[in-house]
Amino acid sequence: MIKASKQVFIELWESLYLILRLSVYETKSRYSMQYFGYLWEIITPIIQIAIYWLVFGFGLRAGRDVGDVPFLPWLVSGIVPWFFFGPAIVSGSRSVFSKIALVSKMSFPISTIPAYVILSELYRHVAMVVIAFILMMAFGISEGWNILFLPYLLFSALAFLYAFALLTSALATIIRDFQNLLSQIIRMMLYLLPIFWQPSGKLELILMANPLYYLVEGYRSMFLGTDWIMQNLTYGLYFWGFTLVTFLIGSAIHVRFRRYFIDYI
Fold it and tell me: Using an 8 Å Cβ cutoff, are 75 and 93 in contact?
């Protein structure tokens, strides 16, 4: 596992410039034939937020705040990171299967495919983070020094998403049904994370086994200016341990089977 992980890391480092270029190309090509182009990356999540705000904020909660925070900024602080995690997990898992033909035309490591596909989702995320900051200011919410956690959270999200995609992209290429299963799990995950509600007690402890829980609450802590990240350093160690193990396993499976990926297409 260590040898495979080192090999993957070296491939990523040596192909860093290529990953950046391909991620930009991936983003541009996604909306190349549409009038609004990249604006759809912003318009779509804003429309979704408006719908969730009406359904959960006014429909189910009758306009009540969450503690001393209005529901809209509380919702946005949790759902903005999900708009990055959800699509990145799905697209990352199918990245090798859908892009394997590209490798036959260009000479670069297959391990870079999940990396540039995930990175292409990051550009929209950065734009949504900026919009979220503007919303927080409009509601008089100050992040204070917690804004310094943003680079850490971005790096944490990218590290986990790539480690997870390295594993799932290999499994999805070898086992076709895995992609469908993962898509269903991601749909359920939206409601099993603290995005629309606040779990407590034993249920919260169970849900915290999901490393995405750490990232969602971390982003919310950063946006709302709370001390959640510093108060949960042990949970942070669990998150990084989970990410490291996932990367080790994903690297081993990826390196072991990638020479056969073309046979599964």
Answer: no
* pLDDT tens digits along 202-227: 999 999 999 999 999 999 999 998 88
Domain boundaries, the chain: 2-264
Cβ neighbours of 251 (radius 10 Å): 24
CB-side neighbour CA atoms (13 Å) of 60: 10
Residue 124: partners with Cβ closer than 8 Å, 6 or more residues away: 27, 41, 42, 45, 83, 84
In order, the DSSP letters of 218-236 are HHHHHHHT-SHHHHTHHHH
**Rounded Cα–Cα distance for residues 24 and 44 (Å):** 19
Q: Determine the number of helices (DSSP H) and then strands (DSSP E) in the chain.
A: 12, 0
Q: Which amino acid is at 67?
A: G
pTM, entire model: 0.91
Phi and psi at residue 153, in whole multiples of 5°?
A: -65, -40
Q: Each residue of 56-96: pLDDT tens digit?
A: 877 766 667 777 888 899 999 999 999 999 999 999 998 88
